[in-house]
From TrEMBL:
It comes from the Bacteria. The active site is at D69. This is NAD kinase. The gene is nadK. Its EC number is 2.7.1.23.
């Protein structure tokens, strides 16, 4: 019987050692093989084999992303050419993609072996940015530099000009990405079960001032206009092009480009609904705490006490 192969994708700065330790102990007990990117070799025990980044997904049966949504998106992008299931272990502050908390990890790993999980398919945006091909699972955004003018760009759909933007940013997102940058810019929430592309301007000054929801079969093209301020292009929050004043971004929708492991889809959906509700409350964390029952506040206080 072939060994179960797990590829580990680590948050770039957070301490992942407790979670990695749990996985290494489990892998030794169940004779599973573990790999990590070469640049993360120093962050894992010797039992984890290091491979080039391009081989991590192809050489794994499944990926485990340890971090937040950004780490999860990175794992999905790694596997976009040959989608592999990705399980997210949450180390972030507010994640919509990740499902498993560290204390739940041993039970989650056991279910991976027995196949007691479902796979949630995710779309992506296949983008051409000034001739370079990139993919985005959340969004691609054209963002202005403060104090150096505004984003000024025309919108074309399937080659037909629709108007122009003059704004702080233009965000093109998937349904999954509708809870991220687009949501912060005032865009609509799109059900993950829907296939659509949403284009949303942030702080529009002139031109198109509302979100546009398009069919996945339509091609979106944004061309910088003469006189636009310098623009950065962000893909899933990563800057891939900086201070451009000319050029174009073309976006195509690609369905079933990523696979996310879901152990309890209903519970995950309820958690996300709660997180979205909290985002709309203009309260600080300590104010939110006061809304909790006294017994739960005491329980949280004990958890936060320093270990002696």
């Amino acid at each position: 019987m072939d060994r179960f192969r797990l590829g580990l994708v680590l948050h770039p700065t957070r301490d992942v050692s407790p979670v990695v330790g749990t996985i290494v102990a489990w892998a030794a007990e169940h004779h599973a093989a573990l790999t990590v990117r070469e640049q993360d070799r120093h962050r894992v025990p010797e039992a984890v084999r290091a491979v080039p980044e391009g081989e991590l997904a192809s050489g794994s049966d499944m990926l485990i992303a340890i971090g937040g949504d950004g780490t999860m998106l990175g794992a999905l992008r790694m596997a976009v050419r040959d989608p592999k299931p990705v399980l997210g272990v949450h180390l972030g502050k507010l994640g919509f993609l990740v499902e498993v908390e560290p204390p739940e990890l041993p039970a989650a790993l056991a279910r991976l072996l027995t196949g007691e999980y479902t796979l949630e398919a995710h779309s992506c945006l296949a983008c051409t940015v000034c001739g370079d091909d990139v993919v985005a699972f959340n969004d691609i955004a054209l963002v202005r530099h403060p104090g150096q003018g505004f984003v000024s760009a025309t919108l074309a759909v399937d080659g037909q000009q629709y108007g122009y933007y003059r704004c702080d940013a233009v965000v093109v997102c998937t349904p999954t990405g509708s809870t991220a940058y687009s949501y912060a810019a005032g865009g609509p929430l799109i059900s993950p079960a829907t296939r659509a592309v949403v284009v949303t301007p942030s702080a529009p000054m002139a031109g198109i001032s509302r979100s546009v929801v398009l069919s996945p079969e339509e091609t979106v093209r944004l061309d910088l206009r003469p006189g636009s301020g310098p623009v950065s292009v962000e893909v899933d929050g990563r800057v891939i092009r900086n201070r451009s004043t000319t050029g174009a971004v073309e976006v195509h929708y690609r369905h079933d480009a990523g696979l996310v492991v879901r152990l309890d889809p209903r519970r995950h959906q309820e958690r996300n609904q709660l997180k979205l509700g909290l985002l709309d409350l203009p309260l600080l964390p300590e104010q939110l705490r006061e809304l909790l029952p006294e017994s739960l506040r005491r329980q949280l206080g004990r958890r936060e006490e320093p270990h002696r």
